[in-house]
Please model this.
Amino acid sequence: MAKFHNNEAPHRARKRFGQNFLIDHGVIREIVRAIHPRPDDCIVEIGPGKGAITALLADACHHLRVIELDRDLVPWLKVKFEKHPDFQLFQTDALQFDFAQLVQNNQPLRIVGNLPYNISTPLIFHLLSYSTQVADMHFMLQKEVVKRMAAQPGDSAYGRLGIMVQYYCAVEDLFEVPPTAFDPAPKVDSAIVRLVPHRVLPHVAHNIKTLERLVNTAFQQRRKTLRNALKQWVPADILDELAIDANARAENLSLATFVALSNTLDARGLSDADKPVTNS
Model:
């Protein structure tokens, strides 16, 4: 096994992996306090990098899994955490990883990560598919992305990301992190978000694919009225039936309204978003 003679990984951040390593110990401790790891937790860290957060998680919990894409960091991480009682490292792309394989004895996962900004949104959607097997998630993301995830109807940041994340999870915007907390310093501010999957969905879509397509279609041209944005799919009488103002825009509709509209489309046999529908 490779040997390293100091506590710092001999590694420079790689732009192609979107790497920005946390170096502010105060911020690191604040993040771990927000996570509040417990001894029996099964914690999964995405992108441990040089192990700044990993080290504190390892001190607090027995079961630690890390997913690291950069193969040059893997030998160093293995050496640093080889004495941890239950440490597993997966050198792979988190976007392609099957998180269900980490669940043991039906214990839900606690997922954390300083996510690369260039893949954060697709990775969030990938992780939402495992929401029933997850207790909570804590992520460092671009501040703008966190604002979008927590946005409410009428907010300028409200859109597809916030609606679909809130369908599965309660969202809490915890605190901001300045660029100076990283090496290299990113050109944007960051924020920590907590996602807690709903044990019981507050609004249940009969067909999640219909809901996803509906929200995506409604926001493709967000300045259009619903009448115009959905005219190739949603008959006008359905909007009237649900008391939805056809002159409103997608950003004015709540998650509950989107789900009700999605379910009505399914009930009418109009779940196929690609099927043209003529408004009457």
User: Anything to note?
Assistant: The first helix runs from residue 25 to 35. The domain at 208-267 is CATH 1.10.8.100 (Helicase, Ruva Protein; domain 3).
